[in-house]
Design a protein that fits this description.
Two copies of one chain form a homodimer. The first copy, chain A, contains eight helices and eight strands, in the order βαβαβαβαββααβαβα. With about 220 residues, chain A is of the alpha/beta class.
Chain lengths: ~220, ~220
């Protein structure tokens, strides 16, 4: 029996996703809640990045996390270990989160005491990019072992993200990863993307990410 | 202008995928062609694994490769560099390959002179697992940096694969990757999965993979 609240969410094929997303975004703005949609491939370091981010910011913001997975609750348990509110969303095989699914989790997560709500999306560089979840901002993580050519192959993900964290820079020496080439590839897809190299495990570069997040939250509430 | 033949393939929503897949498989068996469907997350090492596999086996088999991507032709160019026949399939945004899409590529690839046809599927641990492509066997690559917990989160991919290559074992010391735990997680999803740890970059463990492939091809033609 899991210690974590698990909610089953399934895509409604008839939903008007953009309308639902806009409604959720409007509600978040009215209540001063910043909803962040965090996307990446499987194993790029979403949960590790979140754990460190929570440790750094939990005295500044009341944080709640929705962990979306097809199965298991390992990530929600890891987040709950940080002391913030965490719920697990099970997508019943679905490869992405849409706005209605996000709304269902959001309504469970937010009880009036959350400033920063984070959706850790399904690990997938393709489908999640196609669905507006209602988030204020989209963030993605590209990890060094995946390679600097990924923006060439997965264009939409890089186009829809406001910020790209390049994670696992501590192992750049053991992979054929060209950081400048990677930045060039990202900016070719999205000239407005903010690019922040980090190592979520050691904390390197994370201050720039916290500052980006603080500014985005402040602007959202202004 | 690309030097590679690029074919646009798009999912037919009305197609009876299983029927199309069975027909392609029957045709392959009749002609003695072994079609391998290779899947993984983005950046797990599909192309590197293929390049080394081709170098090792190209004197034994006439090999042809279909590179499926949403955009770009970097992988097909890399494969063409090995001297075998390579074509690029563009999925026009689709997150997976189905049997009709595979058939379209297959008909372009196979001109009577191929023994081993390989489909490098879209980098995605979710959607490709849902569609029978018509392949004789499904293979997947899980790379060490992705983590040993992936079978817990992406059940179907591990269920549908005949063989799981655990790649990038050369960097196991810099990641918190537990090989025995990983094997346990894979076998929990699929007790029949053959698991082969490899390093496609250095060649470590690749002989076991070539042997698995030789046996699978021999059995297919028997």
């Amino acid at each position: 029996m899991s210690q974590i609240r698990i909610i089953e969410v399934q895509q409604s094929v008839f939903a008007d996703n953009d309308k639902t997303a806009d409604a959720l975004r409007a509600q978040c703005r009215e209540k001063g809640i910043f909803l962040l949609n965090l996307m990446s491939s499987p194993g790029s370091g979403k949960t590790t990045t979140l754990k460190r981010t929570i440790a750094a910011l939990k005295d500044e913001y009341r944080i709640g996390v929705m962990e979306a997975d097809i199965d298991s609750d390992v990530d929600a348990l890891a987040i709950a270990g940080t002391g913030v509110r965490a719920i697990q969303l099970h997508t019943m095989g679905m490869c992405h989160m849409d706005a209605a699914m996000t709304r269902k989790g959001f309504d469970e997560l937010v009880d009036g005491s959350i400033d920063l709500a984070i959706l850790e999306n399904i690990g997938n560089l393709v489908c999640p990019a196609e669905f507006d979840t209602g988030a204020a901002k989209n963030a993605m993580i590209l990890s060094v072992p995946e390679g600097h050519d990924k923006p060439l192959k997965y264009p939409l993900m890089f186009q829809v993200c406001d910020v790209v964290l390049i994670n696992k820079i501590d192992v750049m020496h053991v992979f054929d990863f060209d950081l400048e080439e990677c930045k060039k590839n990202i900016l070719m897809r999205n000239p407005n993307a903010v690019i922040i190299p980090i190592c979520a495990k050691t904390g390197e570069g994370m201050d720039a990410w916290y500052d980006w997040l603080r500014t985005a939250i402040r602007d959202w509430r202004a």
